Amino acid sequence: MTRARVLCPERVRAGGSLTATIEIEGPAGEVVVHPRLCTDGGPELKPADGDPFVRLDGGTTRADFAISVPAGLAPHYYFLKILLDTNDDVSFVSRLVYVLPRGPAPAR
Question: Strand runs (DSSP E) across 3-88, as ranges?
Fold first, then answer.
């Protein structure tokens, strides 16, 4: 069984970039990671470089990706959804992300 955990900021500015890391734990094999930022009634936003492909040697590994957030995206909570596809199973993890109005970077 493949397990995953996503690490990303809780807030991102419209017009910015949502960068995230996914930690994947499982048996040796190939994993295709399908991250999407799901907008309410709008298009699903995907990483510009395509879906990360990860090779697991058994144990835990990480994959990084970034999704551009359109400048006109309304301030709201959106789900970052990640589907992990292996030869043996499918796993799913999600995280709630708040998109702030355009402006300076949020304080940490």
Answer: 3-7, 11-13, 17-26, 29-38, 44-45, 53-56, 59-68, 76-85
Two tokens, residue 77: 């909570």
Tell me the C-alpha to C-alpha distance, in Å, between residue 70 and each of 7, 32, 41, 90: 21, 25, 14, 29
> Residue 52's closest CA among 70, 30, 80, 78?
30
Domains of the chain (ranges plus CATH)? Answer: 3-100 (2.60.40.10)
Integer Cα distance of 54 and 11 in angstroms: 26
Task: With beta carbons less than 8 A apart as the criterion, state whether 13 and 67 touch.
Answer: no
Indicate the SS3 state at residue 58: coil
Q: Which two tokens stand for residue 99?
A: 């998109």
pLDDT along the chain (108 residues), means of 10: 92 95 91 90 85 86 93 94 90 95 70
Phi-psi region of 91 (alpha: psi -120 to 50; beta: other; left: phi over 0): beta
